[in-house]
Design goal:
With 208 residues, the protein is α/β, with parallel strands linked by helices. The chain has a single domain (11-200), classed as Rossmann fold. Helix content is 36%, strand content 20%. The protein has helices at 23-43, 94-97, 100-110, 122-128, 144-150, 176-189, 191-200, and strands spanning 11-16, 51-57, 61-64, 70-73, 75-76, 85-88, 115-118, 136-137, 155-156, 162-164, 168-171. A 7-stranded mixed beta sheet has the order 5-2-1-6-7-11-10, sandwiched between helices. Strands 3-4 form a two-stranded antiparallel sheet. Strands 8-9 form a two-stranded parallel ribbon. Helix 1 runs parallel beside helix 6 and helix 6 (176-189) runs antiparallel to helix 7 (191-200). 48% of the residues are buried.
């Protein structure tokens, strides 16, 4: 396998966590990016590790994900590395959508990234931050109508695991975040690494 498309520096991936975040929404992308780096290093010990993922919350704390799963986040809005990619997972977002500090941080952070992505109902948070107006987007099938109602400037579509709009990528529900993250690996580090990563994870990658 050639790693010719691998980035020349390690790309920083920020994954936003909040209370009641869906576990696979953040753990899936984390696994994809960490596995891609592990696979790349295994294939070529001298290659630059392509990705480094950081879990970030509003402040350094233990986030309580769905079903009470505790997840420690050492990085915060005020103190995190510069992100090349921001991933906003879904979950119970009702409270998060109403938080002005969250919308402001997402908008500010996304302005400095190569691309910003959402998983599942994370699309509501990107929309609240003003990032999705006029774009084709998707979310969990159960929340499509609510997204259309709450944000009428969006072109909400169904039936696809993810939609790539260049600097913004949105995915459908939960496990679709795995498919989208593999797509991001393909975009950022080459298709060969994405395919090898899916194989390492024993995962059947849905591309469309």
């Amino acid at each position: 396998m050639s790693l010719a498309d691998a980035p020349k520096r390690t790309l920083s991936i920020g994954i936003y966590l909040y209370d009641e975040v869906e576990v696979l929404d953040f753990a899936g992308p984390f696994e994809v990016f960490s596995t891609a780096s592990r696979v790349a290093r295994k294939l070529d010990p001298d290659v630059t590790v392509p990705f480094a993922a950081t879990l970030v919350a509003d402040e350094p704390r233990t986030v309580r994900a769905r079903a009470g799963l505790p997840v420690v986040c050492g990085a915060s809005f005020a103190d995190h590395p510069r992100f090349d990619v921001l991933v906003v997972p879904g979950g119970e977002v009702t409270r998060e959508v109403e938080r002005a500090d969250v919308a402001a941080w997402i908008a500010r952070t996304a302005a400095a990234t190569m691309l910003t992505a959402s998983v599942c109902t994370g699309a509501f948070l990107l929309a609240k931050a003003g990032l999705l107006d006029g774009r084709r987007v998707t979310t969990h099938w159960e929340d499509l109508d609510d997204l259309r109602r709450d944000f009428p400037a969006l072109h909400v579509e169904s039936g696809m695991p993810w939609i790539d709009e260049g600097s913004i990528v949105t995915s459908a529900g939960i496990s679709a975040g795995l498919d989208m993250s593999l797509h991001l690996v393909s975009r950022l580090a080459g298709r060969a690494l994405a395919e090898r990563t899916a194989r390492q994870m024993d995962y059947l990658w849905r591309e469309t």
